[in-house]
Fold:
Amino acid sequence: MDAPFLPFLPFTRPSIDEETIAAVADVLRSGWITTGPRCRELEAALAARYGGRPVRLANSATAALEIALRIAGIGPGDEVITTPLSWVATANVILEVGATPVFVDVDPATRNIDLDLAAAAVTPRTRALLPVDLAGVPADRDRIQALAAQHGLRVIEDAAQSMGAHWRGREIGSFGDLVSFSFHANKNMTSIEGGCLVLNDEAEARLFEKLRLQGVTRHADGGMDVDVLGGKCNLTDVAAAVGLGQLRQVDAFNARRRRLAQRYFECFPPTLGFELPPADFEQSNWHMFQPLLPRGTDRGRFIEAMRAEGIGVGVHYPALHLFTLYRARGHFDGQFPHAEDIGRRTVTLPLFAAMNDADVERVCAAVARVMQEGGA
Ligand SMILES: *Cc1c(COP(=O)(O)O)cnc(C)c1O
Structure:
């Protein structure tokens, strides 16, 4: 008997409702399509979400992180301690401002930066910690804050993946130093492309505004000045209209993701030798569901065999210190064994808000077939 036809299930897909599409059309008809009222509305809504802390938008989280480093005064000669198990943007922004990324290995249980190793990596040149909440599992904010306080460091949280996640009951972004979120299409909430930075005070917010747009300060009389070199990374109102529609739904999206992740734990084949991700149903926003393949599995063949089953599988991420750019800076195989092992074995299975339990069951059944048939 032929299997019933099932459409291809990607590893992620944004949920954009009709109300949001109508709001985008309104912006396009309004005559004001770049940065304007919708951006200010989204900034205000995010600030309200984070307890009144100032929030400023950028056209990517990468830009927001780079500006955060500049606001913290980080540049040539400075060291920033971070994780090698992240999207490469995390380290690229450190290079972009002329500073040195100092990588330390991850804790294999959380897959986030190992804070004992981070403490041991502090030198007189260290200026900041740049932790990442991989897959939406928050890095330990208590220990990060304590380490930063002990050495007088800034903390730039790469919370690109953790919007709506919590640390000990407090939402990520509502406390801490500088916190960056991404609204890339694959994240839990999207503005197509985009991101934001949560800041400490209005002075930092003003500096962010300058750094995101050519360093310009406008005066009430219509004149302007430029007193600092800024870039060009403002968000458009079209993007902000998408973001506003998403912000209304992100908590519901995240609740749905958590339920789907639970279903994965209930039906993932237990005997195949996969390592499941941390079972965090309190704090994570379940940005991704990432089991590690059994050792010795050919990941390329696994992905191909899953694709033949109609299921998309992603890889987020290989250890970034092994990229050519970072090897050329002296990094090498075996330097961070946990990050490298996870980076080689990780796969991202479908998890997004529009899925249902049956989709998860379908993925689990496909994994069982693919592994039992020796497809990988
Ligand atoms: C997505 C992501 C970024 C970059 O976000 P963009 O909005 O695409 O620039 C940075 N760090 C991490 C961990 C990410 O997942």
Summary: The pocket of pyridoxal-5'-phosphate is lined by residues 60-62, 86-87, 89-90, 132, 158, 160-161, 182, 184, 195 (CB under 6 Å). The mean pLDDT is 97.
